[in-house]
Specification:
There is one protein chain. Helix 1 packs parallel to helix 3. Strand 5 and strand 6 form a beta hairpin. An 8-stranded mixed beta sheet has the order 6-5-4-7-1-2-3-8. Helices cover 39% and strands 28% of the residues. It has 208 residues and is α+β, with helices and mostly antiparallel strands.
Length: 208
């Protein structure tokens, strides 16, 4: 049976891969982190919830929460249930006054923004943590140093995701492992996951 892992929101950071996007970092009670990429509006809504900022008028997620409370609908949990093609899929589990349980498909960014407002838990499955989690070893340096691409003479091309992956395929395995260790030390889990995915892709090709 696939065990459920409770997650907490560790923070938001600018995406190093997609211009204008943000990475939401979710962590377990342990060393693993998963990055969820989202747009500016979703990141702002989550930041507002994290900081307990009161806006003059309700945002969309605030309106959803008020609607749920008005009709005595309770959010039991958010479950990040699937990961496909670089996208996390989530379910929001609700119950009404008669304790009827309903599961609703949701974007992970929306689900997290609402979960923070309704003070409910966020979970994922162990299989997803194994597939997507980036391990932060104890004792890793967390101070920010030079960015990864400061050592790359063609770093201007890194704004293009396709060119980035082309560049990545040219690196030796040892170079990727070294860069992955470095970005983990910098807590750049988004890039660390991409490096790890490339290493896994090469291992799968070797097994064929």
């Amino acid at each position: 049976m696939d065990a459920k892992i409770k997650l907490k929101v560790q923070g938001l950071t600018n995406s190093q891969i997609k211009s204008g996007a943000y990475a939401l970092i979710l962590s377990e009670n342990g060393p693993r982190r998963i990055p969820v990429i989202m747009g500016l509006s979703e990141a702002q809504s989550i930041a507002i919830a994290l900081e307990n900022i009161q806006t003059p008028r309700p945002l969309t997620h605030d309106l959803f929460v008020r609607f749920s409370k008005a009709f005595k609908i309770r959010l039991l949990e958010v479950l990040i249930c699937r990961f496909e093609d670089g996208i996390y899929f989530s379910e929001m589990v609700f119950t009404d006054g008669n304790r009827h349980e309903v599961r609703i498909d949701s974007r992970t960014s929306d689900a997290v923004a609402i979960a923070l407002r309704m003070k409910c838990d966020i979970f994922t499955y162990e299989s997803i943590m194994q597939k997507c989690g980036i391990v932060l070893e104890e004792g890793n340096i967390t101070e920010k140093g030079d960015t990864l691409f400061s050592q790359n003479p063609d770093s201007g091309e890194m704004d293009d995701v396709h060119k980035f992956h082309e560049w990545l395929r040219l690196l030796q395995k040892s170079e990727i492992e070294e860069r992955m260790e470095r970005v983990i030390e910098e807590e750049n889990y988004e890039l660390a996951k991409i490096f790890r995915d490339e290493l896994q892709r090469r291992e799968e090709e070797d097994d064929v």
